[in-house]
Amino acid sequence: xxxxxIKAMVRTRYGDIxxxxxxxxxxxxxxxxxxxxxxxLNDKARRMGYTxxxxxxxxxxxNLGLGCGNPQAIAALRAGETVIDLGSGAGFDCFxxxxxxxxxxxxxxxxxxxxxxxxxxxxxxxxxxxxxxxRLGELEHLPVADNTAxxxxxxxxxxxxxxxxxxxxxxFRVLRPGGRLAISDVVNTAALSEDLKSDPTLICGCVAGAAxxxxxxxxxxxxxxxxxxxxxxxxxxxxxxxxxxxxxxENHVASAxxxxxxx
Length: 263
What we know:
The protein is of the alpha/beta class. It has one domain (3-261): 3-Layer(aba) Sandwich (Rossmann fold), CATH 3.40.50. The chain has helices at residues 3-20, 41-48, 52-57, 72-75, 92-101, 114-127, 164-174, 194-197, 200-204, 213-223, 237-241; strands at 82-86, 106-111, 132-136, 149-155, 175-188, 211-212, 226-233, 253-261. Strands 1, 2, 3, 4, 5, 6, 7 and 8 form an eight-stranded mixed sheet that branches. Strand 4 (149-155), helix 7 (164-174) and strand 5 (175-188) form a beta-alpha-beta unit. The protein is globular, with a radius of gyration of 17 Å.
């Protein structure tokens, strides 16, 4: 599939998840969780590293059971900072970030899926989140001015984008000098078979598009970042195994924390 096909497929898949609600994430053929099993979304989020206090703080409907880690845990957000969330979905990480940066701070969520944006904006309106806004856009062409953000967050989204180097160049552009990345994503740890690489479910399910850690480090350095650190989390194996039960994807990808800073 070419870039256009992949984007269309991903947009359709996540639009369907936004429309159908969390239960739609667990229908047969989804790599989100095991077919036929009910979604315990809070349990999944805990396994990704979110605390009960964080889960209690977000509006109902913001947690769709997506993601592969907790970028908040490495972001060290401070009051008054401006944060951009790449692939913001229903707003889960945006609402948590908004609590940390306070009313003098600002959070911008960017997503290419109209249905997710509508859901996120509705969630924001219900809780009166005045310091959060959501913008339609692709991560390769962010609808954000140069030198805007102190921190960029992302949770298991960049692996879905075909042109990952361009995502990192855009992240560098919109960060202020001294700004930092705090990303949770899936990285490739062993070569995928052709069967796994070409499976549309796994392309949409954060497996087939994962890149090796050393490649991510090279892309970040080429974009201009320094203090680059990609930390693979072996303990994510159990969670990832539930995305495509019986297919052994946990032998090929793992969750990782990706950190870097703009000079």
